[in-house]
Design goal:
Elements lengths: L2 E9 L4 H11 L3 E10 L2 E9 L7 H15 L1 E7 H9 L1
Antiparallel strand pairs: 1-3, 1-4, 2-3
Length: 90
């Protein structure tokens, strides 16, 4: 499995989850787990996704999601699971 961690942070607005999930579905990226919270007006979401059947490579998905985040006013970052795990083990 080719797992990726996606984080989305920013001011809460209508449609953030819908837009991110629509992009992932259109590119055959499977959502394995999703957690989101809103603290006052700030939105925070973390997703674990599987890119095994993705129609695009990781680099393209990552840059596309960054651009999507800019369009909707949030910050979206993607990391490969193994890098995320090693960074947070310390």
């Amino acid at each position: 499995m080719n797992k990726i961690i996606i984080t989305v942070v920013g001011k809460d607005t209508v449609g953030i989850i819908a837009k991110v999930c629509t992009y992932l579905a259109e590119n055959q990226v499977n959502i394995l787990d999703i957690s989101q919270t809103i603290v006052q007006e700030f939105f925070n979401m973390m997703m674990i996704v599987d890119m095994d059947k993705s129609s695009k490579p990781f680099e393209d998905v990552s840059s596309d999601l960054e651009r999507l985040g800019e369009e909707i006013g949030v910050r979206i970052k993607c990391q490969r699971e193994e890098i995320f795990t090693k960074m947070h083990r310390i």
